[in-house]
Automatic annotation (TrEMBL):
Residues 453-464 have a biased composition (Low complexity). InterPro entries: DUF6049. Residues 438-452, 465-474 have a biased composition (Pro residues). Residues 821-830 have a biased composition (Basic and acidic residues). Pfam families: DUF6049. Residues 429-477, 821-870 are annotated as: Disordered. It comes from the Bacteria. Residues 1-20 form the signal peptide. Residues 831-850 have a biased composition (Basic residues). This is Glycoprotein. Keywords: Signal.
Length: 870
């Protein structure tokens, strides 16, 4: 719905219906608009697409809401039509405020005699597409005599209290006319003015549709991949989106029905490609195992309760797996990451998480084989440096909005596939992880036709390489599949959360808040049909439909879009084109360049987030290099740290950074969410470094000697092993040897012996800590109080002097003994003969003493012994 202007009555003498009609023709700039009184909401348009078999009468149902504080009287409305849209940008500019260009107007219909404040009234307007000129009084009609897309609007007049009659509001929308049906009420059915009108002859438009499945990041930041940490979501809204009737369930249900039995020729299935956010798949997969949500959403780290969406998540995931086996699949950047910001940060782990890992995640979770080498930036535009990065990482095709591509013939829209020679690299520089387009096998679900032209057959598609070129050299340039700006903008305006995309031109940027969901959906249908019914010179007969990655339509709206696609196929105005066929065709030979709109820069993630992400990524790399992968344990370091790495990419998400009102787009909520995620991730990372430390001893440590080792206990509370180095800060009187890298087991400790040498006897204080092999400190250092019993140089001198004196005296005694000379040290000591005599006396005394002891104890034995002696 679109408000044009409320023009107050300035001439009090003008009264009656004629005055109201005169005021209805008057408009002025919306910026001069006074307070509003009435708002119109379009409730339905029947038929939403006019075909040869549809009713030749258009019926509009709308509701008038009194949003002011005054009663409005004599409310009338009429249907108005503008000229057919002749340019792609006109699909949006024709809906902008003040863009009224009415060429046909209907009769006024009374809506209500009186409408009080906060009241509303539904009404219906009916007009035939065309009138029969043969009738005596031709009926007023829309005057549509040929196919095309026509802007329609409902204009409403009324008289608010305390003022005069005025044009109070209008609601604009687009009506696609694929063919003008015959007028069954015509007096002469054979009259050319009453027969059916076919669209102009033109080749059918080749159509490819991306069907996005994405959501804003929901996992709480700062969690690790440890088994003892349950999955925690910010809220339980995702459970509602996955349950029956939820947004994600509706998107899957609509596609399931569209490619079901009614799609007998598989035209819809061949033209649709699932575009899936790997962050959503990881979150939903984690939900299937049970999860927790905070009791208070504003406190993600507080008390939790069990989530309610585990069964819905499992069922939804199985259905997506089934769809991935039937249609094409491609991964979008992780969590709708801002790719130029990823490039500016320059962290390898962040780059891999956002760009190179998504394809593997989608293939693993969905058990499918998605299309590699394709990047669809959520912003729809990239700069030159980002394009170079993507190409170096193996990307061969980027999906970009037409406004993000410049060059070629500026008078026409860019073709559907272009190339950027300035970004070309030698073929050998392309990583082997991304096969060249000419050698890439087509997905099993959508085999390429045998008539598909190979990219290498185009003479200007390859960059020369030294030496003779191979017979089938692929085009080394980066390609871009061009998305129509107006069609993409119209689809971004649909659903419960419409927004104006960053790539929309300035003249096509206007608030969407006043438009009803039905009117915005009607505009999207018309934008998709416009190029099919409006063949123009210079416009390719090709259409890539790309709704927003986080699409907020319900099941009925999604089904209506797919029904419109099927209608275009049945009418012969369009033919399905597989996504692989679009990417495999030869690009336009004209050189093209990238255009990075200023609005994309304004909507990007702020510089304030990039420095913390760069710092945390470097610390994560340091920790990851120190962790040890143990094949005997289920948890490996990459899985343990993966959630923290993903947090850094989620902080760069563009989700929530655009709104329905481009003039007052508030990004503070998105910035606050990203900052909170980084803060939690940083706190957790600091805690991981703190879980590896040296245990402080209970008292003073005493060294038994000057070279006794220091005994330390190192503790690792991480669930994975880690390699560490011991950092010693000792006084100059003490030397401690480096023992090199040491391995600490998971959730365990180890005793370390550090060879130490002390040069003085005193009490010392030694500071001991741990670090990663790269030097990043771990845990908190501890201070050891060391007591040493070493005497240093004085003890060494005393010992040496005593030894020398002992050697001198022993040598002198030996010298005299060898020469047979008495030593002066032997004076006063008995000679050898005296020593033998003294020894004999001692033996005789011992024998006499023994005999006396025996006689006292055994007298008879002693007498016998004496007789025997005699």
């Amino acid at each position: 719905m679109r408000r044009v202007v409320a023009v107050l009555a300035a001439i009090a003498l003008l009264v009656g219906p004629g005055a109201a009609l005169g005021w209805a023709q008057t408009t002025r700039d919306p910026g001069d608009e006074p307070d509003r009184f009435i708002r119109i909401s379009i409730d339905s348009v029947a038929p939403n697409t006019v075909t040869l078999t549809s009713d030749p009468v258009v019926v509009i149902t709308a509701t008038a809401y009194n949003i002011g504080d005054r009663t409005v009287r004599d409310i009338t409305a009429r249907l108005e039509r503008g000229a057919a849209i002749s340019t792609s940008i006109g699909l949006r500019t024709a809906l902008a405020p003040g863009a009224a260009d009415q060429v046909v107007t209907g009769d006024y219909v009374t809506v209500a005699d009186r409408l009080g404040a906060a009241q509303h009234k539904q009404f219906t307007l009916t007009m035939p597409l065309r009138s029969d000129p043969d009738l005596p009084t031709p009926t007023r009609s829309l005057g549509i005599t040929k196919p095309g897309v026509y802007p329609l609007s409902v204009g409403l007049n009324g008289t608010p209290d305390f003022t005069g009659a005025a044009r109070l509001d209008d609601a604009a929308f687009l009506l696609p006319v694929l063919g003008v049906p015959a007028d069954p009420a015509a007096a002469d059915p054979a009259d050319p003015d009453a027969t059916a009108v076919l669209p102009p002859p033109a080749p059918p438009i080749a159509t490819t549709v991306l069907w996005p499945l994405a959501a804003r990041p929901r996992l709480v930041g700062g969690r690790t991949g440890a088994a003892d940490q349950p999955v925690r979501l910010l809220d339980d809204e995702l459970a509602g989106e996955l349950a029956k009737g939820g947004r994600l369930d509706d998107l899957v249900s609509a596609l399931e029905f569209a490619i079901g039995p009614n799609d007998r020729e598989h035209k819809v299935a061949d033209s649709v490609c699932l575009a899936i956010d790997p962050d959503l798949l990881i979150t939903v997969s984690a939900m299937t195992r049970g999860y927790q949500v905070p009791q208070r959403p504003e406190d993600p780290a507080g008390p939790t309760r069990a989530g309610t969406g585990a069964m819905s998540a499992a069922g939804w995931l199985n259905r997506v797996r089934a769809l991935a086996g039937r249609v094409c699949t491609v991964a979008v950047p992780y969590a709708q990451a801002d790719l130029p910001a990823v490039r500016a940060i320059g962290a390898a782990a962040v780059t891999a998480g956002a760009i190179t890992d998504p394809t593997g995640i989608v293939d693993t979770v969905l058990q499918t084989s998605s299309r590699p080498g394709v990047i669809w930036p959520d912003a729809g535009a990239i700069d030159d440096d980002t394009a170079t990065l993507l190409h170096d990482l193996g990307t061969d095709t980027v999906l970009l909005a037409g406004s993000a591509v410049s060059g070629g013939n500026p008078a026409v829209t860019p073709p559907d596939l272009v190339r950027f020679p300035a970004i070309s690299r030698p073929v050998t520089a392309v990583p082997t992880t991304a096969p060249a387009p000419s050698t890439e096998p087509a997905p099993t679900t959508e085999p390429a036709p045998t008539t598909e032209p190979a990219p290498t057959t185009e003479p200007n598609a390859a960059t020369p390489t030294p030496g003779p070129p191979p017979p089938a050299a692929p085009d080394p340039a980066l390609h871009a599949a061009v998305i129509d700006v107006s069609t993409a903008s119209a689809f971004a305006a649909t659903g419960s959360a419409p927004y104006v995309p960053s790539f929309a031109p300035e003249r096509a940027r206007f608030p969407l808040g006043d438009d009803s969901r039905d009117a915005r959906l009607q505009d999207a249908l018309a934008a998709m049909a416009w190029s099919a019914v409006t063949p123009l010179p210079g416009y390719p007969r090709s259409l890539l439909v790309a709704p927003p990655q986080q699409w907020s339509v319900n099941r009925d709206e999604a089904a209506t879009v797919l029904a419109e696609l099927a209608t275009l196929f049945r009418s012969g105005l369009a033919v399905p084109r597989r996504f692989a066929d679009l990417l495999a065709q030869s690009p336009d030979p004209q050189p093209f360049e990238l255009n990075y709109p200023q609005q994309v820069i304004d909507d990007a993630t702020p510089e304030s987030l990039r420095a913390p992400i760069r710092d945390q990524s470097a610390r994560l790399d340091t920790l990851a290099a120190a962790l040890v992968d143990d094949p005997q344990r289920e948890l490996d370091p990459s899985d343990f740290l993966a959630p923290l790495r993903q947090d850094l990419v989620r902080a760069l998400s563009l989700s929530g950074r655009r709104s329905a009102d481009p003039e007052s787009n508030d990004r503070s909520a998105a910035d606050a969410a990203a900052s909170d995620r980084l803060a939690r991730s940083g706190t957790t990372l600091a805690g991981l470094f703190g879980q590896v430390t040296v245990l402080a001893p209970g008292g003073a440590y005493t060294l038994a000697s000057e070279q006794s080792p220091l005994l330390l206990v190192a503790r690792n509370d991480l669930p994975v092993g880690i390699r560490v180095r011991v950092r010693i800060d000792a006084p100059s009187a003490m030397t401690v040897d480096d023992i090199g890298e040491q391995l600490l087991p998971p959730n365990g400790s180890r005793t370390l012996q550090l060879p130490a040498k002390v040069a003085a006897t005193r009490n010392l204080v030694v500071h001991v800590g741990l670090s990663t092999p790269a030097g990043q400190p771990l845990g908190d250092p501890t201070a050891l109080s060391v007591r040493s019993n070493a005497y240093g140089k004085a003890l060494a001198m005393i010992t040496a002097s005593a030894g020398a004196l002992l050697l001198l005296l022993s040598g002198r005694r030996l010298w005299h003994r060898f020469r047979g000379q008495p030593d002066r040290a032997d004076e006063g000591y008995p000679t050898r003969r005296h020593r033998r005599t003294a020894r004999g006396h001692r033996v005789a005394r011992r024998r006499a003493t023994s005999r006396q002891r025996t006689e006292r104890q055994y007298p008879g034995r002693a007498r016998a012994s004496r007789r025997g002696d005699r």
